[in-house]
């Protein structure tokens, strides 16, 4: 199990597209969210279990996206997740959407670790940090 680079695939459905027949820009955030969820599962972490058992939530604090090319209906997209920085109570991720090896969208996403009870930042537990280290 490696946290260095994670890849997940998704098909573009009609519901993902806009009137021009391309992926609606906000849907890239959904693709990125799903890939991060699958990445956490790959690391053996379930977000609902973290909330119920540890009282922790991972939430997006900041997102910066660069739209490079259009994805269209029926495209088979690869979404990657890679840790850029693992800080005390947050992590910064690089995520990309590729279509047949060509970058479609790139993002830098900052995730904060919050205490479920009051949504205040808390340190990422060492047991979780260890799984995230490349």
Question: Would you spell out the secondary-structure blueprint of this structure?
Answer:
Layout (H helix, E strand, L loop, with lengths): L5 E6 L15 H16 L4 H8 L1 E12 L8 E11 L3 E10 L2 E14 L10 H7 L2
CATH topology-level name: Thiol Ester Dehydrase, Chain A
Number of folding domains?
A: 1
**Pairing-aware structural class of the strands and helices?**
alpha+beta
Report strand %.
Answer: 35-45%
Mean pLDDT: 95
Number of helices: 3
End-to-end separation: 10 Å
The strands making up the biggest β-sheet line up spatially as 1-3-4-5-2
Radius of gyration: 15 Å
The helix/strand series, from N terminus to C terminus, equals EHHEEEEH
Oligomeric organization of the protein chains = single chain
Q: What is the number of strand segments?
A: 5
CATH class: Alpha Beta
Helix content: 10-25%
What is the CATH superfamily label?
Hotdog Thioesterase
**Architecture in CATH?**
Roll
Global shape: elongated
Unreliably modeled segments: none
Sheet with the most strands, sense and barrel status: 5 strands, antiparallel
Structure write-up:
- The protein has 3 helices and 5 strands.
- By secondary structure, it is of the alpha+beta class.
- The chain has a single domain, classed as Hotdog Thioesterase (Thiol Ester Dehydrase, Chain A, Roll), CATH 3.10.129.10.
- The longest helix has 16 residues, at 27-42.
């Amino acid at each position: 199990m490696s946290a260095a680079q994670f890849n997940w695939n998704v098909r573009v459905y009609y519901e993902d597209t806009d009137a021009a027949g391309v992926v609606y820009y906000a849907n890239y955030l959904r693709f990125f969210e799903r890939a991060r969820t699958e990445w956490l599962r790959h690391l053996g972490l379930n977000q609902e279990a973290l909330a119920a058992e540890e009282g922790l939530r991972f939430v997006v604090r900041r997102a910066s996206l660069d739209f490079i090319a259009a994805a269209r209906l029926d495209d088979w997209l690869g979404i990657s997740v890679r840790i850029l920085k693992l800080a005390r109570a947050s992590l910064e991720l690089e995520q990309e959407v590729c279509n047949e090896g060509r970058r479609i969208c790139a993002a830098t996403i900052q995730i904060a670790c919050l205490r479920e009870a009051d949504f205040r930042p808390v340190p990422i537990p060492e047991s979780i940090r260890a799984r995230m280290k490349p």
